[in-house]
Amino acid sequence: MSDDPRRALPRVDVVLGDPRLESAVLRLGSGLVKTVVTAALAEARSGRVPATGVVDRVQSLLPRRASSLRPVINATGVVLHTNLGRAPLSAAAIDAMVASAGFVDVEFDLTEGIRARRGRGTLAALSAAVPAAEQVLVVNNGAAALLLAVTALAAGREVIVSRGEMVEIGDNFRLPDLMTSTGARIREVGTTNRTVLADYAAAIGPETGCVVKIHPSNFVVSGFTSTVGIAQLATLAVPLIVDIGSGLLAPDRFLPVEPDAATSLAAGADVVTCSADKLLGGPQAGLIFSSAELGERMRRSPLARALRCDKLTLAALEATLRNPTTPTSVALHADPGALRQRCERMAAILGAQAVPSEGAVGGGGAPGVVLPGWAVALPTDLAVALRTGDPAVVGYLSDGRLLLDLRCVPEIDDVRVAEAVQRALDGRP
Ligand SMILES: *Cc1c(COP(=O)(O)O)cnc(C)c1O
Questions:
Q1: What number does the ligand 1 atom closest to the CA of 364 have?
Q2: What is the pTM of this model?
Q3: Which of 166, 179, 275 has the most ligand 1 atoms within 8 A of CB, as the residue to mutate?
Q4: What is the pLDDT of residues 152-175, one digit of tens each?
Q5: Is the CB of 247 under 6 A from ligand 1?
C-alpha cells in the first residue's frame, strides 16, 4: 500500500508553487489556479491522472485568459456583428490600447507639468479627419452622443422628429425613449412614409429646442416616400442635430447611400453624432461634431462627465483615425474573386463545397446592401462543435447547410478555420 504512487501526491500549495504554474498564477490569480489544482489532485487520487502528470493536467484545464470573453472567428459574413462585439480593432489600435494601459498623460501636460485637455491627441486626429467641424467630442457610444446633444439643446423643451425616423436600434432600445429620458418632449411631424419641410416649419414654436434628423440605419422604407434633406432642414431657424449612425467620416464610394459626417456638416447640420465602432472600425465610442458654441455647451454639460470614455478607448480611436485600414474596411471591400479562391482551397482540403454567400454590413447599418461573397458549405450538425471549440467559429445556417463565409476571416486564419472544421468532423459520432 505504501508504494501506491497515489499516496505520494504533493499537497495543493506545493503544486501551486511549481515554477511551471507561476505565470498562470500571475495571469489568472491564485484562487482560480488553486481550484484547478485541487480538481487535478482529486483526479490523480482516483487514478485517472498519473501522479507525475498533475501539473500538466492543471495546465490543460486552466483557461488561457483572465477574461471569460472568448475570441470568436466571425464566419457569418456580417461585418459589424453586434453580438460579436462589432468592429474588431486594427493592429495599430490594439498596440495603442496596450501601450496606454498604465499611467499615461491622458489629462496632463508633461512639458508644463499641469492639467491638460483630456484626450487632446485623439480630438486633434478627429478634427483633422473632419475639418468642417469646429468642435469635436468623444463619449461612450452613439447613444450617449445623441443623449448629450439633445440634453444640451432641448432638455425641458421640444425635439422635432419625423415619424419616419422613430427608430428602434435593437434589443428594445428606442431612440425616442432615449431622447425623452433627457426631459425633452418629442414633437412628431409628418407620417411614417412622408415628411415635408412644411411639417417641420409648422411645428416650430417657442418651445422648440432643436430638430433631430435620424438616419434610419437598420430599415428601408420604399415606395411613396418623402424625407427632408439636411440642407432644407438647415433653413429652419432652430439648431439641427443629425444622427448619422454608422460613423463614416467622409463619403465611401462602396456605400453611396450611407451618410457621412463631413457632408452632413457641409449641408448645414449644427451637430452630427455617430458611433465609432461601426463603419469607422474603431473602439466603442460616440463621436460628436459641431459648431464651436454648441460644442462648448455640450462639453460643459454635467452629463459629459458621466458619458466620457476611458483612456484605452481614446488611444484605440486615435490609432484608428491615423490608420484607417481597419479589419472592418478590409472585410467590407474584400474582393469576391479572392474570397472564392480561399473558399475553394479550404473546401478542397475538407472535401466540402464552395458556394456563393451574401454578406451584410450589419451593426444596424446599410440595410439592403448585399456584399457578394463566398462560403464553405458544411453539414449543419457541425455548428455546435465549431461554436464551442477553440477557436470558436461562428457561421450561419442556410438551406439545410452550415455556411462559413470567409469575408470577415483574416486570410491568415484560414488554416485555423480548416483545422477547427477537421477537428469537428473527426469528433462526430
Ligand atoms: C447604432 C446607432 C445608434 C446607437 O449607437 P451605439 O454606438 O450603438 O450606442 C444610434 N443611432 C443610429 C442611427 C444608429 O445607427
A1: 15
A2: 0.92
A3: 275
A4: 999 999 999 999 999 888 888 899
A5: no
